[in-house]
Amino acid sequence: MDTNSVNYQALKKYKNQIFATLAVNIITFSQGHGIAWCAPSLPLLQSENSPLISGPITVEEASWIGSMVCIGGVIGSFLFGVLADQVGRKKALYLLIIPHIGFWLLIMFGTTPVHLYIARLLSGTSGGGAFIVIPIFVADISDNKIRGALGSVITISFNTGLLSGFILASHLSYSLYPRIIIGFAAFYILAIYSLPETPQYLIKTKRNDEAENALRFYRNFEAATKEECQKFNEHLANWKDTINGGEKNKKARISHRDFLKPAAVRGLLVSLVVLFLNQASGLFALINYTSNIFEMSGSSMDPNTCTIIVGAIQLLGTFFATNYVDKMGSFGLIPLPSVIITEIMPQKISATAVTFCLSVHSVIAFIVLKIYPIMMVDLGLYGVMGICGVICVLGAIGIYFFMPETKGKDLDPTEAD
């Protein structure tokens, strides 16, 4: 009974943070559907029953459809990173819907491969933006005690969308599927409409009264005593001092010399190698070309059924990684590249370094997705899988000997570099 009471009190205290996190992640769920669209759709687009007026697409055209999402990812990461800082987190969340809806509309009404190239570019833009803006928003509004749990929702939401997308895209018609999923866009706008801007951004822009109201909302603060009110005001004042002081000294704190220190150079090199291995292993290519891969393998199972199984494994892996990252450390969980980069970089430059590394990650992913279908034709499926397997083995050996362990590392931003 005491445990239930504690859980209820915690839920009541954090209910607005939980609601806000679930609301903003509606678009990541829909984004998962957008990525899932590719795998079941490419075999249809390459067949004689292609829904495009221009007829069946070629392997070259399929490779462009698969890879353009990564170029959009680079654009979205930089664009929405700037927007979140310049116009606010909430407005940036609203703006995510523009390329996202554009993707679904082009899937619904596109008649040529070029339309699908643009659609996937827009999908990457909204996805890259979502994975920049939403973590910032959630980190801003979350209490320290549940920040990790709320931060993991974005990955779970995306992979849930991926799995359900594989299921629906495999069983619904090409034209019906986007007409159903585009409805999530309206649901998303309605869900985030009532959310205040984050207190941190409001303090940064000198809107102190709004910041106080936003903090009261996200902390679900209801002062019952003078002591509680005083504690809240002290907390708000500390935030103001920290944020205003940090903004004032931001440029002075970081210079190009910080990126040339041994720890920074070592961190960048390790991060880039990890990101290369993440993509060269064929992980993202498998998600995008799953149906084609299983069709070429000669499996007796329906390729789309195999795709659904892969999506289920991906979702289970997400739950496993989320629950055990602190227990196993970085050696056991290389599928979490952004987490690892953050932890092995000197904290002084980690934000800038993560943005740079993830942009390089998108470029590598573009190259892999572009050449993967062509390699499957030229080298055969077994040849491509053999190359990916060798990369995985060499990567595992290299990571074992050269990857620094981050479990229990002190992430104090004032630590020496």
TrEMBL record:
Classification via InterPro entries: MFS_dom, MFS_sugar_transport-like, MFS_trans_sf, MFS_Trehalose_Transporter
Residue ranges of domain Major facilitator superfamily (MFS) profile in the record: 18-417
Keyword terms: Cell membrane, Membrane, Sugar transport, Transmembrane, Transmembrane helix, Transport
Source superkingdom: Eukaryota
GO CC terms: plasma membrane
Sequence intervals crossing the membrane: 18-42, 62-83, 92-111, 117-138, 150-170, 176-196, 263-287, 307-325, 353-375, 381-403
GO molecular function: transmembrane transporter activity
Topology of this chain in the membrane: Multi-pass membrane protein
The keyword Transmembrane helix belongs to this UniProt entry's keyword annotation: yes
Localization per Swiss-Prot or TrEMBL: Cell membrane
PANTHER family reported for this sequence: AT22075P-RELATED, PTHR48021
Record protein name field: Major facilitator superfamily (MFS) profile domain-containing protein
